[in-house]
Design brief:
Layout lengths: L2 H21 L7 H16 L9 H17 L6 E3 L1 E4 H21 L5 H20 L5 H17 L3 H11 L16 H18 L6 H12 L7 E2 L13 E2 L4 H11 L2 H13 L8 H6 L16 E6 L4 E6 L2 E6 L21 E5 L2 E10 L11 E6 L2 E13 L15 E3 L4 E3 L7 E15 L2 E21 L4 E3 L2 E2 L5 E3 L5 E5 L2 E6 L13 H4 L10 E19 L1
Parallel strand pairs: 18-21
Antiparallel strand pairs: 1-2, 3-4, 5-6, 6-7, 7-8, 8-9, 9-15, 10-11, 11-14, 12-13, 14-15, 15-21, 16-19, 17-18, 19-20, 20-21
Length: about 550
């Protein structure tokens, strides 16, 4: 066993229980969080190295949380967790309870028999619900299947195996480049990968491991030097946030051990070394599967000098040591007239970093009929490190209805324009258009990147927004107000964190142009203002503008 790894997880789990000792477990949370807290407590209770092993206070908390879960389970076997009577949300906590039951059964401490019995009853009620209930998202299929695989190991039932096979028959939603359909680091790390590995383990389906292997290999090219995972292309909530790689720990360990892969081993060791996240959460799974704590193969350097395209999400990643960049053209914004979870709508099309100096986003917003930010309709690579993004937006003016389409009462169909709805029967009217064509070329140069903006068609003002991560020093730009907004009027700006710096420019004048999120956001008082130090450059189409980024 990797004793240092086991010691790390045990210490992290004990620290969590020590915090709980100060106030007791929070029992007012949703059932999913109750089950996860129970799993943490049980890992400490049964762990041979744990200072909380067979502790009476911990056991009493385990009893209370188990009683809460019994009381909150519906007669149909499901739980309410945001969604009502939800099979997929129930599956999340059932996976935890199966781990809990396995650990307590293996420990076989007489004092926990009532807890084991209660959990056994929960699993018996939940199984049929998961074997017949529906789901909402792609990853839910694999979560439900993994929960059924675990229940079937404890309470064998052919219905559970049949349901797993039925979901798997739909095919795993992964592209050849290893990216799942949701394109999300959250759901790859926390749901899809661990669920597929669980099904492979409990149902003897080793072919599922290949999907995880490809995803982990792809993620090597999405890793930032500080352990973050680039998620700008995500179709879920992490498209606007920062994700750390820590949730991938056991997946990288398992595949490193299975494949003798030094790259995966190096990532696992870097997570352990940094100690970010809730590493104690992994203790229960390692106690359940001790082989995950075997010594890793010798580490090999993950890729740090590459240009990698991901066709599944129309993005390109470039890395040169501590300098990285993402170019993104895979938005769903043009495909559907809605803003919703499950769609990629982040208007960031370029981001980069030089060590600790981080430019989290570059965005473009023309003031063009309330259509909002530029969202690329394509990504084209003209050479390995020269990429073009582009779009054409056409906004109509509507002509009178043909005579045969007119009504005496003046009542017409409520129809969409793309920006708004009106009782105008838009689809039956002739139109003339105002258009705006935008092309952005991103080219890697020796020590940075050149972005060339070409806007053609209608005359309209536009703003380019650069958002730098808080924590550095910004110079060369003029403060517009006291809320983190600046303008680069002339010359070169600099954003520095210690010895790491990003130089950018040239400035484009003093004209102020507001970043317009568009009618879809304004109607709901929504905003797309990113957190950080925001620097603006402005212009007026038609125009060609060049923006240079250099690192030091």
């Amino acid at each position: 066993m990797d004793q240092e790894f086991l010691g790390l997880l045990t210490a992290a789990g004990a620290a969590r229980i020590a915090r709980v000792r100060r106030t007791g477990p929070d029992r007012e949370v949703d059932p999913r969080r109750l089950a996860r807290e129970l799993r943490r407590l049980v890992a400490g209770y049964v762990g041979e190295r744990s200072p909380d092993r067979h502790d009476e206070v911990v056991r009493e908390w385990m009893r209370l949380l188990t009683g809460d879960l019994v009381a909150r389970q519906h007669a149909d076997g499901t739980y309410d967790i945001g969604n009502l009577h939800s099979p997929p949300d129930t599956a999340f906590l059932i996976q935890d309870l199966c781990v809990v039951w396995e650990l307590l059964d293996r420990d076989d401490h007489a004092a926990t028999m009532p807890i084991r019995s209660a959990i056994h009853q929960i699993l018996a009620k939940a199984g049929p619900a998961l074997a017949t209930g529906g789901v909402h998202t792609p990853n839910h299929r694999w979560e439900v299947s993994a929960a059924l695989a675990r229940i079937n190991h404890i309470l064998p039932d052919q219905r559970y195996v049949d349901r797993i096979d039925e979901w798997l028959a739909e095919g795993i939603d992964a592209g050849p480049d290893g990216i799942y359909s949701e394109r999300s680091a959250i759901y790859a790390a926390a749901v899809t990968n661990p669920s597929l590995l669980t099904i492979a383990w409990r149902q003897d389906r080793p072919e599922l491991i290949e999907f995880v292997r490809r995803n982990l290999a792809a993620t090597l090219h999405l890793l930032e030097p500080n352990g973050e995972v680039d998620a700008v292309a995500s179709r879920r909530q992490d498209q606007f946030g920062i994700r750390d790689v820590w949730e991938y720990l056991l997946q990288y360990r398992e595949l490193a051990l299975l494949d003798d892969d030094g790259r995966f081993a190096a990532v696992a060791q870097s997570i352990e070394r940094r100690g970010a996240g809730e590493l104690g959460d992994f203790l229960a799974e390692v106690l359940e599967r001790p082989e995950l704590a075997e010594p890793l193969p010798p580490p090999a350097d993950p890729p740090t000098d590459f240009v990698r395209e991901f066709p599944s999400q129309a993005s390109v990643r470039i890395r040169r040591g501590s300098r990285t960049a993402t170019i993104f053209g895979g938005t769903d914004f043009h495909n559907l007239p809605v803003i919703a979870s499950g769609l990629s709508v982040n208007p960031t099309f370029f981001k980069m970093r030089a060590g600790d100096a981080i430019l989290d986003s570059v965005r473009l917003a023309p003031q063009f009929f309330g259509t909002g930010h530029f969202h690329s309709e394509y990504l084209r690579r003209w050479s390995p490190a020269v990429v073009e993004l582009g779009s054409e937006v056409a906004v109509p003016y509507y002509q009178p209805l043909p005579a045969e389409r007119r009504t005496e009462d003046g009542r017409y169909a409520l129809t969409p324009d793309g920006r708004f709805y009106a009782s105008m029967d838009f689809g039956q009217r002739a139109r003339d258009y105002r258009t705006l064509r935008t092309a952005i070329t991103v080219a890697e140069v020796g020590n940075g990147f050149d972005l060339t903006f070409e806007l053609a068609g209608s005359e309209t003002p536009y703003a380019i927004e650069l958002c730098f991560r808080p924590g550095g020093v910004l110079s060369g730009a003029v403060a517009i107000d006291g809320s983190g907004n600046y303008q680069l009027e002339s010359g070169t700006g600099v954003y520095a964190v210690g010895n790491d710096r990003i130089e950018f420019g040239p400035g484009s004048g003093v004209a102020r142009v507001a970043m317009d999120p568009g009618e879809r956001y304004r109607m709901l008082n929504g905003t797309l203002v990113p957190d950080g130090l925001r620097v603006y450059l402005t212009g007026r189409a038609p125009a060609t503008q060049r923006l240079e980024f250099r690192t030091a």
